[in-house]
Amino acid sequence: MPLNSPVGLPPTALGPHAVALGATRHPGRVAVRHADGPALTYAELDERARRCATALHRLGCGEGTHVATLVHNGFDGQGIWLGLGWLRAIEVPLNTELKGALLRHALRASEARILVTTSEFLTRVAEVEDALPALERVVVVDGMTSELRSLRVEVDPLPDLADVEPANGLEGPSYRDIAALLFTSGTTGPAKAVLTPWAVIYQNWSWVPADAAEPGEGVYCAMPLFHNSGRAALNGAMVRGLTFVFREKFSAERFWDDVKNHECRAASLVGPMTALLHSRAEREDDADNPLRAILCGPLIREIDDFERRFGLRVATGFGQTEIGMALVTDWNHGPWSSCGRERLDYPRPEVRVVDEHDQPLGPGEVGELVVRSPEPWALNAGYFELPEATARAWRNGWFHTGDAFRYDEQGWFYLVDRMNDAIRRRGENISSFEVEELVGGHPEVVECAAVAEPAELGEDEVRIVVVVRDPDSFEPAALLAWLEPRMPRYMWPRYVEPMKALPRNETTGRIKKHELRAMGLGPDCWDREKWGSRSRA
Fold first, then answer.
1. How far, CA to CA in Å, does 419 sit from each of 229, 356, 451?
2. How many other C-beta atoms can be found within 10 angstroms of the C-beta atom of residue 15?
3. CA 124 – CA 121 distance, rounded (Å)
4. pTM for the complete prediction?
5. Which stretches of 110-214 are DSSP H helices?
């Protein structure tokens, strides 16, 4: 990596370089460990990454190539991430729940030339490949199957890594290279691919207090690599010489056993995960655990009691795919409802709360949070192939987050509401537009509006308000059954509410979603958790 990195961003701040340094300084230290036991040392992970680089280069991956990845959390995904980094390719990490129209959109919008996946997902790919003119090759990491014959594009197995030489002498990524196209939820349109430099991957976790975990200690994270939260946590763990302990998915039932079995000192969570852990019945030995730190956003109302009960400290912050972490705390996390204060370390972001004309507002006034940084490449480089959306978001030299905030005299910032129509459920940002598009495809649905409904354990549940052709025969459970094979699991609506008509602005005709949110759940609202359906999210 070039040595002329910005102040505060060390030359080994990026995953491939950090792992390579670890392989030299402490080769036998465990770098990554699955919670069920299997592990790779820094030397083994570095070799795996370099062998992946060789194998992927043979299959057409190179500098600037858009390479989509559709794989579960695991050593394969970690090695591919690092290998593509060495090649300076641009990864397009895809949510493993994507299917149908949403998968087609992600692959098409990113102009991915190569897709790296497993045999599990080949049927989904076959269903959409005819609409993907840029896709040239599918690489299968877990062996060839008969399903491959259904694909028109070239299909190759990832070579056995034991049979390829590890790539050496590669320059690897710079902080200013685009590391990934990460999709973020759309509101008035489909999800957008964010041009994410390596510097954003680094700074999304570099705010974590230095004493959260010492070199060689374990940090627990069950968030996926297709989210910047999971990707940045892995990057940060490698930079600090930690052991990254992971699962494919978060499990409240397994959490404490996992951290105890592997002596994890820190854990990375989101608010609903913390709420789930706190909601479990108290035990006398709750504080008898190795954790001393949890990194969590947003905080839950009971966070002070959570800290006392489990004998640990909590730090928090506010970030987005586009900006990394702009507001952060140390172990003094302040009021539970706060997102933190303005960050002072790299990349030293400037934040403001502004009115509709981008004029700064004072303490207590509510406006949109905007962010910029004096450091180059420290925030997003725009939305891929969407110049108008990029210009709107970056108008007047500030990135507009779309979130309503206020701040107090002490400098604490508070999220008031979403200024857009995004819905956040269990750590996933959900596009209301995409929910509405999928629901609107049902033959009985005339109109649909998707809005956020506050969840019992924090964040949101998905609520859809629908106008249907025949209210007397409409069955919400049948609609959900129709959606299940077409919609990612994390998008499944919990609430379905029929209405005769949706409230609209008389001038523009836009649906007044603020009114739907303010109405709350009506007497005719169907609750999937109460009435049930064939499946549960």
1. 22, 11, 12
2. 29
3. 5
4. 0.82
5. 122-128, 198-206
Q: Is 256 left (phi over 0), alpha (psi -120 to 50) or beta?
A: alpha
**Contacts of residue 456, Cβ cutoff 8 Å, sequence gap at least 6:** none
The alpha helices in 240-373, defined as continuous H runs, are: 252-261, 271-279, 303-310
The answer to whether 208 touches 239, Cβ cutoff 8 Å, is: no
With helix as H, strand as E and coil as C, how does 422-461 read? CEEECCEEECHHHHHHHHHCCCCEEEEEEEEEECCCCCEE
Q: Is the dihedral of CA 256, 260, 261, 267 positive or negative?
A: positive
User: Which residues neighbour 391 within 8 Å (Cβ) at sequence distance 6 or greater?
Assistant: none
pLDDT confidence of residue 148 = 60
Cα distance between residue 407 and residue 233, in whole Å: 28
Lowest model confidence (mean pLDDT) among 326-340, 396-410, 439-453, 492-506: 492-506
**What are 498-508's pLDDT values in tens digits?**
988 888 654 44
Distance between CA atoms of residues 374 and 382, nearest Å: 16
pLDDT digits (tens, 9 = 90+) for 258-298: 999 999 999 999 887 898 899 889 999 999 999 999 999 88
Beta bridge partners of 429: 424
Which domains does the chain possess?
46-195 (3.40.50.980), 201-418 (3.40.50.12780), 423-531 (3.30.300.30)
Closest Cα partner for 205 from 300, 340, 345?
A: 345
The closest of 367, 101, 114, 330 to 212, measured between CA atoms, is 330
Estimate the crossing angle of helix 75-87 against helix 42-58, to 10 degrees. Answer: 60
Six token digits for residue 473:
């025969």
